[in-house]
Amino acid sequence: MTEPLRIAMWSGPRNISTAMMRAWENRADCAVSDEPLYAHYLAYTGLDHPARDEVIAAGETDWRRAVDALLGQSPERKPVWYQKHMTHHLLPHIEHGWIARLRNVLLIRDPYEVVASYVKSRATVAADDIGLPQQAVLYDELCAAGEAPPVVDAGDFLRAPEAHLRALCDWLGIAFSERMLRWPQGPRSSDGMWAPHWYASVRKSTGFAAPMARENVLSGEAAAVAEACRPHYERLRALRLRV
């Protein structure tokens, strides 16, 4: 049985990760999985997120079983399997050895923009909530395992989606598909149970939106978190894919 090409896109929240998932799912040869470690994350941490009970009931709460599934056969036996991951779901007790068996990509975004978006829907924020510290650790681990992952900056990507997607497909050894640039509006059966709470904009979209200048003003805890994450962001941004 031929092994699928398993692509793991490691992002933080409030990024373009769901639009990226839409792009890959619109390929005829690709299946997607939406945050497969989220149920374990919620069950283990006890955090109160929108649709928490539904996410836990619908997902796999044992991270080991979730990982076993991610290393198994792809949905519908598609040859390409895109896995959308959040790095903050990699809780400290989760072993990381399995990750090197995937083809990994890091998706980063300026922490000031991430935090400004995050605090619109959450009362508090901490550095680990937005995933950048975990992305920096994961980058080093993957380099040590033998393959430096491409780093995609969301701002750069939105200025040149096709060029970035072509570069990623080339790195993965697969053909680029024009279908990755445009997709039909609406929900997907592959969307997580949390989609009604978070995916309204993506469900209305038909492609990647052009980047918009935002004047975000942060203060207090939010500003401190953004600044604490900035060194991780700047380090990874210096390593970003340039097209």
From TrEMBL:
The organism's place on the tree of life at top rank: Bacteria
InterPro entries: Class-IV_PLP-Dep_Aminotrnsfr, P-loop_NTPase
Protein family per UniProt: Belongs to the class-IV pyridoxal-phosphate-dependent aminotransferase family.
Pfam families named among the record's database cross-references: Sulfotransfer_5 (PF19798)
UniProt name for this protein: HAD family hydrolase
Naturally occurring in which organism (per UniProt): Luteimonas salinilitoris
PANTHER family given in the database record: AMINO-ACID AMINOTRANSFERASE, AMINODEOXYCHORISMATE LYASE
